[in-house]
Amino acid sequence: MEVVAQFMGARGEIEIIRSRLDGTLAYYEDGIFQSQGTPAGESVFTYVKLMTELLHNSSRVLVLGCGAGNLATELSRRGKLVTLVDVNPLSFIVARRYFGLPGELRCVTADFRKVVADEEEVYDGIAIDVAAPGLSIKRTFSAEVCDCLRSRLAPGGRIVMNLTIDNDLDPMPDRLAAMLSGNILHPWIVDEPGVEGRNAVLNCSPERLASRRSAFVKLLSSNGEKWLVRKGRLGGVDRVRWPS
Fold first, then answer.
1. Are 32 and 133 within 8 A, CB to CB?
2. How far, in Å, CA of 90 to CA of 109, rounded?
């Protein structure tokens, strides 16, 4: 491994580290591994590719959370009109310089909760990947914030979100998927059972059935991984809240 660059950001030091094996670049923030991709912007993570496929039919996409910018980059290259929001402006600079984030892509420096509360623009896709050192999902995604996110959707729009979960018994993906879906969308969870400390993708969509798009289905068993799609256990329930 080779340290390519180091920056001091709002949440701690950002390090860019190159793999000597395949040339991919890893993005660390405050010592926490956040992203990994090629210098051209292609993510090595299956969850990023799954999120991209789930937004196949979306043309205007709001991406919340930058990191290396791989998701926003791929969506933009597929012809989507992307708005990328992150509270740390340094992330945009790093993503452009080392991970191929398009220079013309609209980047907004702000807390995403203020953006969705204050702006009146609507999108047919919202992608959420806001993991960061010290960030609390429960405090960040209250029932009110989830309602506000859903209000920014155009008719037929959808929300996809990456979530890190502990294990098979973690209730967070089902509860958060229900909160994001409300009584309008249908919650689906794309998960890799049996893997501890894993990523799960929440898909809150207008469709009653899970995606059967061939490119999406192929990803479920790529790289030796075994992702499964299941319906949210709480269904789409209006005004679900976190337990106190």
1. yes
2. 9
Side chain identity at residue 3, one-letter code? V
**pLDDT averaged over 10-residue windows placed end to end, the chain, 244 residues:** 82 88 90 88 93 97 95 96 94 94 95 92 96 82 95 97 92 95 95 91 93 91 91 80 78
Q: What is the CATH number of domain 43-231?
A: 3.40.50.150
Helix (H) / strand (E) containing 124: strand 123-128
| 3-state secondary structure at position 72 | helix
The tokens 């709480």 sit on which residue? Answer: 234
State the pTM of this model: 0.93
> Which residue has 């991406």 as its token pair?
63
Strands, sheet with 2-9, edge to edge from the N-terminal-most edge strand:
2-9, 12-18, 25-29, 32-37
Question: Where does residue 11 rank: exposed (0-12), middle (13-18), buried (19+ CB within 10 A)?
Answer: middle
> Would you give the distance in Å from CA 31 to the centre of its chain?
20
In degrees, to the nearest 5, what angle opens at C-alpha 31 toward C-alphas 28 and 36? 20
